[in-house]
Structure formats: C-alpha cells, structure tokens
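Progress narrative, work stream C.
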Amino acid sequence: MSDTPVIGVLALQGDVREHLIALASADALARPVRRPEELAEVDGLVVPGGESTTMSKLASLFGMTEPLRARIRGGMPVYGTCAGMILLADKILDPRAGQETFGGIDMIVRRNAFGRQNESFEAAVRVDGIEGDPVEGVFIRAPWVESVGARAEVVAEHGGHIVAVRQGNALATSFHPELTGDHRVHALFVDMVRAVG
C-alpha cells in the first residue's frame, strides 16, 4: 500500500457521498463499494449511516455479507457510523426480524436508542485519540452501545452512554462526523488503515 490508502465506502444505502468527501479530505483514495470484487480492491472500508435493516438485506442481495465478514475477520480496517455501528456489532439488543450484522466488534448495540428522527441532535464529544477540541457529533436516530466485551475499548461517551468503540482495526461511532466538515475521525481511520499496510 502506498501512503495513500484505498478506502471504500459501502454504497448500498445511506450517506455515501459525504464519507467519500471526508475520506478524500483525509488523504485517502475513496471509492464506492457495491460488489465483492470491489471490496477485494480496497485497503479499508467505511460502513455509513442509513437504515441498518435495509443495508443488511441489500448486503445479502448483492452477495456482500459473507465477503464482508471474511475481510473483517481477516483484519481489514473498518469504520461504521450510526447504522454502520449496528452492522459492526457482534450482537444487536433489539434486532428486526431477519436482521444480520457483519460483526467485528465485541459489543451489544441498541438501535434508535437516542430516539426518533425528530429527536436528532448535535453534541460535542471528546474522542480518545483525537487531539484538540471535542468532535461535533451529529446524532440521527442514533444507536448507543449497551455493553462491550473484554477486547473492545470505549473511546467516547455522551450522556452516560457509550457512543464510540474501537477493537483492533475496527472503529464505530453512534454519530455522523462526515456531516460536520470536521474530518479528524476520518483522519484517525485513515491512519488505522495506513498502520496495517
């Protein structure tokens, strides 16, 4: 891998474009990923926000579920925001019927924990590993993490709830840093991808 890692954004549903822009701003070569052959060509992957049940079904439809699980198990760096956090959890507390995850982080996640769409909010969040001011977190029908296993590290909390977790090469946030113009969380992830290379 060169100093400019190739990072995909899972482009089945959700706010793909914003992540592509944020990754490019953090000096990565960003591209959408919809098929297993595209997944095979990237050094890392962002699983964006959107609707976790829909994304789970579309991943299955596009033949992406097993290839994603295999790459994550194999150590490919992955970062999930909001719905992406749900999809990286080993367990969902209140899954919809038939909802599956890709796994990768030993955590239990509660869907829509912060409330409905009209209860969305922004908050300053202090994230371990990010220097300077707190990150402005945009919470939209956001999940939170009920509990983490021994291998997972809590890197941010808000209002007494876990909102960011890291485990090895996997990172997940309840909030959407791609919507704020502050690309430090993406820069942290790009550095994680470089470290593997």
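Work stream C, second folded protein:
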Amino acid sequence: MMDWLRDNMWAAWLTIAAVLGLAELASLDFTLLMLAAGALTAAGVAAFFPGLLWLQIVIGLITAGAMLGAIRPMIVRKIHHGQELKTGSAHVIGRTGTVVKEIHPDGGGSIRLGGELWTARPYDEVSTIAPGTRVEVMSIDGATAVVYPISDPLSQVETPKPQDPPQS
C-alpha cells in the first residue's frame, strides 16, 4: 500500500482536492476551494516529481496561501458587494413615470412607468396632478403607486399652420 501511494502520490492529491471541492459545496465560503487549488497544484508537482513529497507540500501550501490571500478576498468582495436585488413592486420605487390620467387625492389616476400602466395617487394626499406631468414613485400601497410630481405638465405645442399664398 505504501509503495503504491509513494508511486501515485498525484492520485492522493487529486483525491484530497476533490474532497475539499465537494466540502466547499456545503460551506460556500471559498476557503476550502482555495485549499483544493493548493492540493491540485501539489498533484501537478507530484506528477513531475513523484519522490519529492516535501516539494509537493511546499508548493501546495504556497498556492493555497496565495489563493486565500489574493483571490478569495476579490471573489468575496465581488459577491457580497453587488447591487441589491429588488423584487416585486419594490423595483419601481424611485423610478419616474408620466401621468396618463389625472391623479386625484381620492385615486383613480394612472401613470405610465417603463411601458406599464399603474394606478396612482398623490403622495401629499391633497394635490391633483395633471396628465403629462413627470412623477417619481415614492412608495407602493397595494397595487397603487404613490407619486410626487417632479416637473410641470408637458404643454401641447401648436404647430403653425402654413399661410395661404397672397392672392393677386
């Protein structure tokens, strides 16, 4: 058994790497994954230098240490400091839309928000907001957007009619 292990140390290192990799699936901390990378490197060294166990251990430890010190912090930072995922109606809070149907304090108005129509009511509960006004969604109350105006209504600009040519 010991002769086989000495001659096939690369297989032992691969087994250690596989066990650490599988254990990482349970922890999801990326520590065991970095140690598995060290064991994988040691397996590569064992394939080229089968009789030098000390070299396999040193190279494996250096690799694992470098991975733990340099690579793992970058991965953890990337995963834990990404954008917060907003689900449900929370994804519309802070977005802007346009009033389609006049918004009264008693409800009944609607806004277009990213291609969707939402029922809406004013944030201050006393204002009436005219169609064409840009509004910001302050909160969601059930299925109703609570909005605040951020611009004046878009005015209808009349296009000048062509003048009739002068009669002579």
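The radius of gyration is 33 Å. No further action is required on this item.
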